[in-house]
Amino acid sequence: MSNVTRGVLAEFLVARAIGVNPDEVRHEWDAYDLTSPSGIKIEVKSSAYIQSWYQENFSEITFSIKPARAWDSETNKLSENAARHADVYVFALLAHQDQDTIDPMDVSQWEFYTVPTSDLNTRKRSQHSITLGPLKVLAGETLSYHDLAAAVDLAGERNEKPD
Predict the structure, then answer these.
(1) How does pLDDT run across 22-65, given as a tens digit for each residue?
(2) What is the total count of domains within the chain?
């Protein structure tokens, strides 16, 4: 239920859903989180209503979309400019709202949203974060775990690459 552990689990769930080779090693400081079998670069963001600490109310659902400087493992240097380096963002929401029955390993308790990075780049509102309402408008339908692979491929096709 902790933010860090949930983020790692979300990446794992997305990787499994889209068929990433389980033997691939993910480097923590890479410019994006995953590469699909078809070559789509993916950034995974996670959030949840219920946290690992005491709460009087559910957490507001917010995802960071802030552009970042990429680290190059070969040169051990950061890029000059901040950018979004993935082709597609997958937003993973642990949507279950009952403390007694929440189980992050139960994929039916998660909702997923995919957005081409170009859609985030042209967004008129905040370039640092997005809340659930605007995300649903931008992403469209809520996806289940089982619909994720096709949705990532579609979002990857829709992503407009800069010239």
Answers:
(1) 777 677 778 899 999 999 999 999 999 988 877 788 889 999 99
(2) 1
Provide DSSP, 121-157.
HT-SS-SSEEEHHHHHHHH-S-B-GGGHHHHHHHHHH
User: b vs e for 16-51, b when ≥16 Cβ sit within 10 Å of the residue's Cβ?
Assistant: ebbebeeeeeeeeebbbbbbbeeebbbbbbbbbbbe
| Rounded alpha-carbon distances, angstroms, from residue 29 to 25, 32, 49, 79, 101 | 12, 8, 27, 12, 33
What Å distances lie between residue 46 and 27, 38, 78, CA to CA? 18, 23, 24
Q: Does residue 163 form part of some domain?
A: no
Q: Quote the domain boundaries for residue 68.
A: 3-158
Q: What is the pTM of this model?
A: 0.92
Which residue from 4, 22, 40, 24 is spatially nearest to 148, judged by alpha carbons? 40
